[in-house]
Design a protein that fits this description.
The complex is a heterodimer. Chain A folds into two domains: 1-66 and 145-154 and 180-229, Rossmann fold (3-Layer(aba) Sandwich); 68-143, no CATH class. Chain A is 38% helix and 27% strand. Chain A is built from eight helices and nine strands. Chain A is globular. The termini of chain A are far apart. Chain B is mainly α. Chain B has a single domain (27-233), classed as MetI-like fold (Orthogonal Bundle), CATH 1.10.3720.10. The longest helix of chain B is centred in the middle third of the chain and has 37 residues, at 100-136. Classes of the chains: A alpha/beta, B mainly alpha. At the A-B interface, α2 of A face α5 and α6 of B.
Chain lengths: 229, 253
Amino acid sequence: MTALFALQSVNVCFGRVPALSGCTLRIAAGDRLALIGANGSGKSTLLRTLHGLVAPAAGTVQVDANVRQALLFQRPHMLRASVLHNVALGLWLKGAPWALARAQALQALERLGLADLAARHARALSGGQQQRVALARAWALRPQVLLLDEPTASLDPAAKREVERLMAEFAQGGMTLVFSSHNLGQVKRLASRVVYLEHGRLVADLPTHDFFNGPLPAAAAQFLKGETG
Amino acid sequence: MNTFSDSARTALSLITSLDPAFAAIVARSLAVSGCACLIACSAGLLAGAWLGVARFRGRALVLALLNTALALPSVVVGLVVYLLLSRSGPLGFLGWLFSFKAMVLAQSVLVLPVVTALVRQVVGDAEAGHGEQFASLGARRFMRSLILLWDERYALLTVLMAAFGRAVSEVGAVMVVGGNIEGFTRVMTTAIALETSKGDLPLALALGMVLLGVVLLLNGAIALLRRWREQVDAPAAAQAALPAAPAASGAAP
């Protein structure tokens, strides 16, 4: 299958601190890839590298030129504006006229069941609602690949379930998902493939069932034991 | 003490009677500082926002110079503008020296670094905090600077008010380039300096009270604005916000 992303021996450094070292990874259409690892293991850096926000110091990052992608941050920033305008902004920045951007933003909010929030001030929403609005902002761009950086961290259980439900819906619709998470239950529910990172190195890349049931490299096994034990 | 209480009483009567000469000085002061802020803010907002997101070789040097300019003594600004506008100076052909325009120019030069540096700080902090999110949506640096400028508009209003406070309370620059000509270039601060030296304390005190009143109004407006903003942004109120920059509290030398 043709890869949407192909990383070959990618190194990323912040100053003199290595954030990714020798990462080689291929992501194909339809993958539901979970990135796991301890804090500082390079999950967010890998997502930002895939999205083109971070340039590699060495190695190559090949991205299918036709692929539309969006990145959802752990703590999405909402402009001091209405929910509708926050969602329309992404479309407007991609070149849509403002009136069209507003119309498409409203469609996105309706699709995600947030139409009743359209006129609300985005900063006045709860964390869970803001995360769903951010999902709508990403979905409005009609991405083929959605990158999510710990999308349910710091959300309450109900908001977590809602975001997970939307992610599952997107995946069923054919969207490729790449997400980082500390929640192994969520990884089991959503991912078809798991990548384990440690100190910026890609230690394991396995189908979800094999990752949780099969033999693992020692570092990944130790991590899993610590998380589940 | 008697001198002070007598002066204060006379000053209050001057204010309440709206003495025409007194009112003209106050109006001229507000007009000069208002125009200067308008000009300085037009340039300072864009320059500060751009510096907040731009990364280029020599940026640290530019920022160091900008921060140094914050401490520019107003008399030095007055002197430089005087030299520029004097008959033999490069801008002498304008014939602006000892005019309203010269005072506006001098205060604009004085306030521009204040606006630029504070806007740079506000937008720079916003860029560090969430600029990447707008970049991920496709906003390039210049567009990002405009978006962040708009998003931080309440914090920036505080900056603008602080800038006006700086302009309206300075005395050195307008004294040098305006000449303190009665009925023409006399403003509150230069009048206070003159009347005090002449011993006309009631007029000086009345002007001082109005000056303090203007600054008090500015601070009140800032406080109201912040309270309103906190109510609108209730869940986000705990996030980092620019602390209110207090407007200047008196005449700067």
